[in-house]
Amino acid sequence: MLVEINLLPKRERKSRFIPLLSIVVAVLFIVSAITFYFIVQRMEQQIEQLKTELDQTKALRIAEEEKQKTATNASVGVQLQEAIQWAEQYPIHTVALLHEFIERLPERGFLINVSYARDGAIQLTTQFDTTRESAAYLQALKDASFIADVKLTSLTATEGKTEEEGTMPRYIGQFSIQLNMEEWKKQQQGGGT
């Protein structure tokens, strides 16, 4: 019988797991790096594209604002020209008109507000001590030849104070007046009241 004796140390098998794992990790790292690079490149392209679109939008907005300014200036110019033509065609002397309204007020009547429209529509806000004074003022306005129509649209009582009598109501009257433009012009040209 033969006996074999081996005095050389047995070779241990080298594990293939560690090199294989290193290769897999290296491949994953390379793939991840390439993917990350392409994603970054793509995002930079999108950012550049958005910047370009933003610049174009700003340029369009500025151009549109310039157009609107030009159109607004032209529109304002046209409106101003129309107002000048209207003023030349319909010279209403508002100071004289106010004088006529004030002249017809009773002794304790006051004009608070006057608004005038181009078509001769006038809104008056007045203050009186009594309702009788407001009725008298309405009649005085009706009797004026330069007034085509007049209405007392509202009359409200408010508290007013006087030194002698203490608290006394005041009456605020709203009048709607339509001016007879032709008659007013005639009266102004003739110098009559």
From TrEMBL:
Listed transmembrane segments: 20-40
Which superkingdom heads the taxonomic lineage of this protein's source? Bacteria
Segments forming a coiled coil: 40-67
* Keywords recorded for this protein, A-Z: Coiled coil, Membrane, Transmembrane, Transmembrane helix
Report the protein name in the record: Type IV pilus assembly protein PilN
Organism, by scientific name, is: Anoxybacillus tengchongensis
